[in-house]
Description:
The complex is a heterodimer of chains A (831) and B (104).
Chain A: H1 7-15, H2 29-58, H3 68-103, H4 111-133, H5 158-186, H6 199-231, H7 244-278, H8 285-298, H9 314-326, H10 328-344, H11 351-373, H12 376-382, H13 386-416, H14 422-448, H15 465-495, H16 532-535, H17 539-544, E1 558-563, E2 570-576, H18 582-598, H19 602-620, E3 632-636, E4 639-642, H20 651-680, H21 695-699, H22 701-719, H23 723-749, H24 758-789, H25 799-829
Antiparallel strand pairs in A: 1-2, 3-4
Helix pairs in contact in A: 2-3, 2-4, 2-15, 3-4, 3-5, 3-7, 4-5, 4-18, 5-6, 5-18, 5-20, 6-7, 6-8, 6-20, 7-10, 7-13, 8-10, 10-11, 11-13, 11-14, 13-14, 13-15, 14-15, 18-19, 20-24, 20-25, 22-23, 22-25, 23-24, 24-25
Chain B: H1 3-35, H2 45-69, H3 73-94, H4 96-99
Helix pairs in contact in B: 1-2, 1-3, 2-3
The complex binds protoporphyrin IX containing FE (HEM) and copper (II) ion (CU).
Copper (II) ion is lined by residues 256, 259, 302, 305-306 of chain A.
Amino acid sequence: MTRPAGEEAELTQAWASPPGWRALSAVNHRPMGARFVVTAFFFFTIAGLLALLIRTQLAVPNNTVLGPEAYNQVFTMHGTMMLFLFAVPVLQGAATYLLPLMLGARDLPFPRLGAFSFWCYLFGGLILLSSLVIGAAPDAGWFIYPPLSGKAFSPGINVDFWLIGVTFAEIAGVAGAIELTVSILRSRAPGMSLSRMPLFAWYMLATAGMILIGFPPLILGSILFELERAFDWPFFDTSRGGDPVLWQHLFWLFGHPEVYIILLPAVGLLATFVPVHARQPAFLHNWLVASAIGTGFLSMGLWAHHMYAVGIPQMSLAFFSAASSLVAIPSGIQVFALIATVGMGRPVFRTPLLFALGFVVIFVLGGLTGVMVSLVPFDLVAHDTQFVVAHLHYVLIGGSVFPVLGALHHWWPAATGRMPSETTGKIGFWLLFVGFNINFMPLHHTGLAGMPRRVYTYPAGLGWEWSNLMASAGSLMFALGLLIFLGGLAHAAFRGRRTQDDPWGAGTLEWIATPPPVYNFRAVPVIESRYPLWDQAGLRGAVLNGVGFMPDPQGGRRLAPATTEVEAVPEMALDLPGPTWSPLVTAAIFAGLFLGILVQAYAVAVAGAVAAFVAVVVWMWPSERDHDLPREVEAAPGLMLPLARGHHRSPAWTALWVTLAADAALYASLAFAFFYLWGFAAQWPPAVVRATLSWPAVTALLPLVASVAAAWLAERAIRRDDRAGLVRWLAVALGTGVVFLLLQGWAAMALGPPSRHARDALAHVTWIFQAFHLLVAMTMAGMALARARLGDFAPDRHLAVRIATRFWTYAALLWVVGFPLVHLAPFLFVR
Amino acid sequence: MTEPSASAFRALLLPPLLWAGHFLAVYVFVSLACLWGWHRMEVPVVQVVVAGLTVAVVAAVLLATRVTARMPGFLGRTGGGVGLLFAGATLVVGLPPLLAPVCR
Ligand code: HEM
Ligand SMILES: [Cu+2]
């Protein structure tokens, strides 16, 4: 059967982005992914130049290229930018670009969220970078430990740049993780059950889960830290019940998963491109999946191994040391499976495979030194020496830079339609590989010979000269390799030989057409294998001829199937939004808000907060009423699927739960802070003379419960097609919500001043946290109310109401934990 | 949850979630016990509780894994691997309080 003429042009038209500068309003996943990757490499270049500056300074003893202050800024910015602005975003960009293509999807399920994530990342990165330009860059190391980074010892604005820029980038990461999780779970091509899902998707799923749970502790820590620096709320101040070690816990609760957040997607890329060049399906596929899941969870339980030298209890040492050694098992399985895939296949040693082997060699060496430092007695010797610098670069460059460069070469034809040069690729690889080892191998020796990290110079005669000089020479070679490799790719993008479809003979869907058209797939195929292009004869022809799902855009809509989580059964039809300025404008307003906080211009910050609120409401306001949408669309000849928008099982429903999981991690971090200080900080329990329960605090519980009930009654009303009842009950919920907030504010005035003691500060953060969530729920409910009054919603289409109800309930549940912490705990403190 | 989601959950997520719960329980319990001086009691309360918890959770993980491993194909094999990994991991987390002196 042939498709109607003109359908393909209509499809192109539906998915096109505007030309010229208006392309900035594009939300399609490929421009977004490309922007992520290019921006990440921009920050990589700057951080790399800083590294060369470090190596120039350290090349000879008593050097004076950089003074101590400048050196502190340079190494801090190098580490911070490499990790927060390069290593994580570049992989998020790769996933944004590749995942929909691999999953047989036309786009990510929330294109605007993806765009928002990118702009937040860009603005956060630029805020951080601007500190370097004005010479006030963060200078307390990439993990900015207090008390050094506290107001007393870092009075300048430097550390604030770190806190604000990094938090902005973290928010981008969480937004991206929500997007990717839902995409992997709900937008796979029909038939692509979990067992047929490409390995990269598995690895990204594990990574996104880690971001959702691992980033919130740092976001919370940064908020607390900024509150301490700006308003003197003493979370990390030992004289008033705080504890600097709390920062270390919150930081490493994030920081250790971070290492695997960088590693796992990189392994996922390897596990996808190595089989292509080995011409052999990934060996031990199931074990690779199990290892991804295993690493994801295990890495959450290791954070304190960065704190062996702090003086934490011996018990904890044993506990975390044991857990740390465990993670070697899944890591070992992954490396073994990759080697075995090459060994069992008929490998063609093109550039990507060389980078894979580079990964194996370098990462395994880094893993060996990792096992060494995970042993407490050894770590006490090596801690804070150049040995650790060597270790972390073996892991990070081996585990992230090499796989990413290999992946760039491998997917370059898919992105540009042209072949990269094997000659420059291979020359680049060998320079990078040899240069890397000349650079970092000697630093193991320098470290064991006693040279600390983070010192701007060293005297002659300690036996550190030759190894430092060698390292500096190696860094130049490494830089030259990068220049040749990336230059080769850039050249190929314009002058390279044009490729035919699927130039490497790969098996996964992104290679159906090279480069893919804007709409990715002429029709969304039905998948029956892990390597569909290898196993499903005739698949390419069928897709190109429009046989499959949604070949017809039905009046210029961006249609794509949404499927079930496990079996990928087609469930409904997504109708995705086109170009819009909302994400860019909203992110820019947030940037203004954060800049206001940064320079302590609180009027600007408040104005920014109001503007941000308006921007989010405008963004969330639907362009069409759910009520008016067609109930069903034709997904394939003879198959009707319900439209996802407003449907109670739409991907937005999945996104709600994913978001709540991340938010719960944020709240759990707050509770952790409370119990940690209670258990370990000096000046605890706080000197409470007389504990009383203020009557507004208790009375407030009543309207809170009433508001939750009203929200649920509202939902019940619309399920019974009673729109008037919906409006009425939502109004009741809003009213009782306002009463609750007023009583809460009143009760808060009876709490101690936040700067008195860490407990008082935590009490204030806890009630504000909850109040903020209730405000969000009230905004959702208010918008639902407005929509209902305009005649929207139906018994089978009222997703916005369902989401508001769930969020409202969640906000109330927060207070189940919060109320005892704020109002009951003092009874335990009375002396 | 639909039937396939439930079995995928049991195969792939239940063992790690049990491990995480056990990890938290042991960490919090040992911290609190040390804070409140329970390790100085006549009976080795800390060790007994940790050992009991560990045995119980390892058994639960293994049980779940046995059900999983009987499933055919991908979920059976991958879930089996995940289960074994986290049975071992749970055991390793439970050991230190038994081998090293607690609360020092
Ligand atoms: C171009 C190659 C690179 C060179 C020559 C280089 C060099 C260095 C040196 C010499 C230090 C130690 C500074 C000191 O302690 O005094 C350092 C620190 C660091 N590097 Fe790199 N680096 C490179 C690439 C990377 C990459 C790709 C990453 C991450 C993906 C990275 C992450 C870090 C981190 C996290 C630190 C610690 C910063 C701190 O102590 O706060 N580096 N680098
Ligand atoms: Cu770690």
